[in-house]
Structures are given as C-alpha cells and as structure tokens.
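$ ./design --mode recover --in tokens.txt
reading tokens...
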C-alpha cells in the first residue's frame, strides 16, 4: 500500500496499475479534470501539478517544500508519503487564489487550455520566492507553453502574485499538514500491485539491493522523466518497477575536501547549488537542462543510467573525471564514468547492479573547465552537441587535457586524438587548430533531425576554438547560456 495526501484528503492505494500516471489518476480516478494533457512527454507544462514534501532545514525546523512537476511523467507510486496539489485545490471558500486572480487581472489567459499548468507553476514560484526577479520567473515558467498570450501578461501575473504575496490556506494549514505528513511517513516497503503489474517502494539502499536481486527484470524508477515515456509515448507496459525516490541515502549530497558525493536519486534541481559552487559552467548548463518541472523530478543518476548519447550531464562529468559507485547486494565497486558507457544504451552495469552515487572531484585553481550546449532553442531543448573542456596549463604548456562530447557518438565520449594533440604542446592557436582537425578522427557523428553530421563536427570544432578564445580574452566570455 502507498499513502499520500490529495490536498488534505488522505488517499490509501494498493490495487492500482503502477503504470498509472498522476495525470490520469487525477482525471480518471478522482474526477479532477483541471490538469490537462498537452503532449504526454513533459514538454508543454499543461499537466503541471505541485507536490509537497516534508523537509527539515539546517536549524532543525520542519517545513513543506513545494515543487512543480509534470504529472504526465509522474507515476502514482512516487507520491508515497507526500502531498499532491492540483489546480482545483487553490480556490478556497469561494475565492480564487492570488495566482489565479493575477492571471485574470493581467489577462494572462485566452483559450485557457494551458492556464492550469501556468497557475500551478506560479503557485510553486510564489511558495519558493518572496520577490522573484525576471530571471526566476522566466525559469519557473520556461517549461510551460502558451500559444495565445505571448507570455508578457503571464510574466506580469508572476510579478503581481509573488511581490507582496499574502498568506493563503496552505500557509494557514502548514502545521496541520506537517503533522499529517509525519503520520503517513513511510516506515516499510510500499507497493502498488494490480495483479499482473507491481511497483515496490524501498526506503533503504539495503532494501533496494535485496529487491533488485529478487527482481532483476525490474525497471528502476527515479524521476521517471525518461522511463515514463515508454508508457505515455510508446504505449508499453512495465510489469515490475522499483521506485528509488524514497531511499534517503541516495538523495544525499556530501562535500569532502577533495570530492562531492551525490546520491543517484538526487533531483537535478537539488544538485545545482553544489555543482554551481564548484563549476559555474555546470550550473549554467543545469539552467538549460529541460525545464524546472523536469529538473525537480529528474535525477543525476537517471541522466547517467539511461545511457543516452545526448544526455547533458555525462560529458561534463566525464571531463571532470567523475566516478560512479555501483551497488549489487552488499558489494560495491567504483568505476570511472567514462568506462560506464560501452555502446548505444549499453553500459558496464551488471544484472541487479545499480548506481548508488556519483563522485565528482572538487575544483582546483589549475583547472580550466568550460561547458557548452548547442541546441535549437535556449530553454527546454535537447542538445545537438554538448561539449566539456578541462585543461591544465603550466608555463604556457598543456599538461593535461580531458575533452568530452555528447551528441557526437553512440555514447558520451572523450576525444582521445584531440587530447593527444594538445598534451605537451603550447596553448596557442596553431595547436588548437591541430586539435580541431583531430576531432574528425575521434568522431563520425550521425545526421538526424537535430543536426547533420557536418554541422555537428563543425560545431564541436568551433566550440574548441571558442574555449581557446574565451580563455585568452576572458572579458568576452559568453559561457553556456548565451550559446545557441
């Protein structure tokens, strides 16, 4: 059985199809049809809901963290021990919520289909910021598409509803909601079981290892932003899933003198602070990683584990010399991330083995790390090419080079010939041109609807040239966010 709060209503579910998304649960099982399906792939934001989780801050104070999610990519099993809020829950005692009023007063809605999703993104923004600036409002709404209003009135609604905000019914009930969430906090393995399909929800790494050993055919579910597409887009059935999002040990971020250890089930939005502090270009790339809804849900381990050749984080992690800790039963092994990827969607992971955490070396003054993403639009888009460069230069000579690319091969991959052309050579234009030519030996990219093979190779070469120019003239540095 799993338990969660539907606003303030306790829901206990057991015999549900584990392939059921929160979107379809709301619409078909509880009659809340305000949440819309626009794309069923997490691209449009019409299905946005907000999930509340009990959190404890550094001072030991308990509070509820509200986050926007795409309900079309969220399986019901991930709600275990949490609070689900949909657009119907915002109106209180006959009065619209302040974010709804702002959308009305600023003329932020026309046809209205996308409006519930925008309202829920604004609600989450209001809960998480006292006075958001334009950048925060843009980030909060970048995962919501509107084909009518042109966004200006919606941004005006964001400013009106978040600046000088007033307490609402969720603030008034916070103590009560905290108590109710504590009362339903999971204490044992949860399960949804429809007879022929099941999803298990462990609480510890040990339980996860035991379950995965017992069900090696199971699909591991973390954020589900990739896995759920098999259900929503390809109409496949997932007979057995194991949801890892309630394993607290795999959601930790621990900082040591020489490294950062990030639990594989840590949401990308939670990774931001630690990675941005060490590597600002990593932080900038995370701002361009899909939408806020996806970053609130998708995990760093999932972005690695799905072995996509166009995943944004692996090239950066490989260039930084990151490692993964793989767990199977009581056995653990540490593997360089570059050795994890073997071929298209093929990894070094053994049966019943899972990624427990990612180890990222801390930055040093000698490193010259930059990352770049080429995509058709700035926000919420997949890379055509993603490049990460990490050089060490001493007395004008390159002593170490790690260059990694996504979108250039069947796997995220280092550019060995390019690196060899650089190591031991002076860091000058002639050497960089030689290294650019060597990229043609490292990669024979494919052509697809995102980019041709010629475009990809030329882009990769130009990104290396860009990297060199920025390091020579840092005052013109544009970094990852300005490159499209």
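writing sequence...
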């Amino acid at each position: 059985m799993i338990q969660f709060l539907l606003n303030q209503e306790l829901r206990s579910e057991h015999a549900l199809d584990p392939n059921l998304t929160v979107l379809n649960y709301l619409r078909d099982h509880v009659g809340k049809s305000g949440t819309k399906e626009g794309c069923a792939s997490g691209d449009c934001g019409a299905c946005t809901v907000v999930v509340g989780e009990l959190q404890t801050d550094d001072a030991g104070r308990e509070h509820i963290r509200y986050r926007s999610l795409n309900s079309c990519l969220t399986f019901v099993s991930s709600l275990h021990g949490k609070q689900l809020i949909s657009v119907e829950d915002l109106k209180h005692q006959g009065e619209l919520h302040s974010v709804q009023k702002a959308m009305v007063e600023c003329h932020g809605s026309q046809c209205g289909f996308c409006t519930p999703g925008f309202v829920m993104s604004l609600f989450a923004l209001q809960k998480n910021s006292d006075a958001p600036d334009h950048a925060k409002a843009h980030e909060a709404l970048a995962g919501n598409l509107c084909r009518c209003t042109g966004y200006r009135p919606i941004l005006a609604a964001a400013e009106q509803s978040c600046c000088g905000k007033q307490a609402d019914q969720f603030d008034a009930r916070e103590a009560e909601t905290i108590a109710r969430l504590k009362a339903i906090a999971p204490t044992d393995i949860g399960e949804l079981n429809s007879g022929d399909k099941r999803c298990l929800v462990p609480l510890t790494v040990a339980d996860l290892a035991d379950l995965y050993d017992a069900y090696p055919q199971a699909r591991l579910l973390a954020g589900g932003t990739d896995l759920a597409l098999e259900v929503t887009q390809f109409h496949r059935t997932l007979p057995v899933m194991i949801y890892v999002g309630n394993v607290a040990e795999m959601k930790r971020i621990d900082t040591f003198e020489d490294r950062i250890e990030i639990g594989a089930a840590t949401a990308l939005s939670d990774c931001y602070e630690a990675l941005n502090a060490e590597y600002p270009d990593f932080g900038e790339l995370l701002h361009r990683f899909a939408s806020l809804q996806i970053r609130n849900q998708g995990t760093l381990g999932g972005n690695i584990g799905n072995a996509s050749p166009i995943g944004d984080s692996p090239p950066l992690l490989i260039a930084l010399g990151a490692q993964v800790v793989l767990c199977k039963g009581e056995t653990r092994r540490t593997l360089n991330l570059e050795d994890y990827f073997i071929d298209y969607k093929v990894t070094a992971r053994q049966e019943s083995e899972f990624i427990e955490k990612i180890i990222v070396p801390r930055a040093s003054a000698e490193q010259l790390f930059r990352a770049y993403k080429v995509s058709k639009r700035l926000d919420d888009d997949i890379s055509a090419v993603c490049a990460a460069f990490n050089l060490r230069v001493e007395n004008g000579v390159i002593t170490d080079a790690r260059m990694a690319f996504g979108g250039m091969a069947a796997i995220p991959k280092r550019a060995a010939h390019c690196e060899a052309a650089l190591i031991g050579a002076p860091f000058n234009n002639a050497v960089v041109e030689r290294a650019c030519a060597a990229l043609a030996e490292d990669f024979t990219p494919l052509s697809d609807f995102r980019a041709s093979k010629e475009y990809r190779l030329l882009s990769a070469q130009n990104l290396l040239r860009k990297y060199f120019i920025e390091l020579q003239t840092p005052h013109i540095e544009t970094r990852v966010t300005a490159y499209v």
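exit 0
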